[in-house]
Write a structure and sequence with these properties.
Blueprint: H1 3-16, H2 26-36, H3 55-84, H4 91-124, H5 132-141, H6 149-161, H7 177-188, H8 190-193, H9 215-220, H10 228-234, H11 239-244, H12 256-268, H13 274-294, H14 307-312, H15 316-323, H16 334-354, H17 362-386
């Protein structure tokens, strides 16, 4: 079955090789061929391959780990849409409704993103990197389902061009491209990225009032003297619902259970660092309990919130598992990963509590710590060198 395709590529390769009439488009030819076949190139000099986990396999595992979040996100988007429209959210109608909303976001993300990848590869005369396979899927999963498609195109363009290509491409970027595009959209178009109405697609325009607030919004609006836990329960957001993720939110970032399934795969195959993930959890719990100690009867309700709720509300699980563990924009030293993860968790809680205008927190915390990742590695290495014996 694959032999005719193999013969087709072999016959056309000379036109895209050096000196061929389509030499300029060799990156596009190579990317298309590698989609069907594993590259047959071998090292001609000293080998520097760490193991069998090349970039293509690396990205394939990450995409596989994202499938639980994607599948649940499609169902949840459709479920929330049917509920808000006053319809019974049966499984199949919810999935169909979710696909109608989510699939265009993914198609636009991949189409526009790969346009920039191909353009920069042609200009630089380099092969197209498979790194965007993950970025193109991560980005729409962090967005509200009601976002216009043209804003998806603008956001992924900013993430790819400014977040990655200006630094030299895959492996050289200091910021997570998907997260960079998401943060840009939040500050450029805040009305489309925040507020109660953006998290639920309502097909029946007369039912707009049924679209509810997210758990983070409920927590942020809880008045002093009341507990956030009580407010969440009154809004039909018990801890079980928060863990499952069946509430309005970003397309694929609400389900802690789906994120944990993906995290298990990434940790087992050695892609994601458990140090970053556990460090983030410790940071959330430590700062959350510290704020509990500072809380009083007259203080804001956020201060007295059980820290475990911070772990299951919003996109913290998605961010710490799939965004913070990005091997390019995160530290490389083991000790740095603990500090990096802890700082992300701590900043997430602080941003949520003390900055009501940005209720989520985790995305901004990760992009902020991306900037400090090289510095953390520098100080860890410097500290180790200090402990060495002087040359004698």
């Amino acid at each position: 079955m694959m032999k005719p395709i193999r013969n087709l590529f072999d016959a056309q390769r000379r036109h895209f090789a050096q000196g061929g009439k389509f030499e300029r488009f060799h990156p596009l030819f190579e990317a298309t061929e590698s989609f069907f076949f594993i590259p047959g190139l071998s090292t001609q000099s000293d080998a520097h391959v760490r193991d069998s986990l090349d970039l293509k396999r690396f990205m394939s595992f990450v995409i596989l780990a994202l499938m639980p979040c994607l599948c649940f996100g499609i169902y949840n988007v459709g479920y929330q849409s049917l509920m808000a429209s006053g319809k019974y959210p049966a499984l199949l109608p919810a999935v169909i409704s979710g696909l109608q909303t989510v699939l265009p976001l993914i198609i636009v993300s991949y189409t526009v993103g790969f346009f920039w990848e191909i353009l920069f590869a042609i200009i630089r005369k380099k092969e197209i990197s498979e790194g965007f396979l993950v970025t193109g899927l991560l980005f729409p999963l962090t967005l509200p389902p009601t976002i216009p498609l043209w804003q998806v195109a603008v956001g992924i363009s900013f993430g790819v061009v400014i977040g990655k290509e200006v630094f030299g491409g895959t492996g050289r970027n200091i910021l997570n491209p998907a997260l960079c595009g998401r943060v840009f959209l939040f500050f450029a178009y805040p009305m489309r990225m925040s507020g109660d109405a953006v998290w639920t697609v309502v097909s029946d325009k007369t039912a707009d009032a049924l679209s509810g607030a997210t758990p983070l919004a409920v927590a942020a609006l809880t008045p002093s003297g009341e507990t956030v836990e009580t407010a969440l329960t009154s809004a039909n957001y018990p801890i079980e619902t928060l863990c499952l993720g069946l509430y309005p939110g970003s397309v694929g970032a609400t389900s802690v259970l789906a994120c944990l399934i993906g995290a298990t795969l990434l940790i087992v195959v050695g892609i994601a660092s458990y140090r970053t993930i556990i460090g983030g959890v410790i940071g959330v719990l430590a700062v959350g309990y510290l704020l509990n100690l500072l809380a009083s009867e007259t203080s804001m309700a956020w201060l007295s919130l059980n820290p475990w709720h911070h772990l299951v509300m919003g996109g913290f699980a998605f961010g710490i598992i799939f965004m913070a563990t990005d091997p390019v924009s995160s530290p490389g030293m083991n000790a740095s990963k603990w500090i990096y993860g802890f700082a992300i968790g701590a900043l997430t809680v602080l941003i949520r509590v003390f900055n009501p205008a940005y209720a989520e927190g985790v995305m901004l915390a990760i992009i902020f710590m991306n900037l400090f990742a090289p510095l953390l590695d520098y100080f860890v290495i410097w500290q180790r060198l200090r402990k060495r014996l002087a040359n004698v």
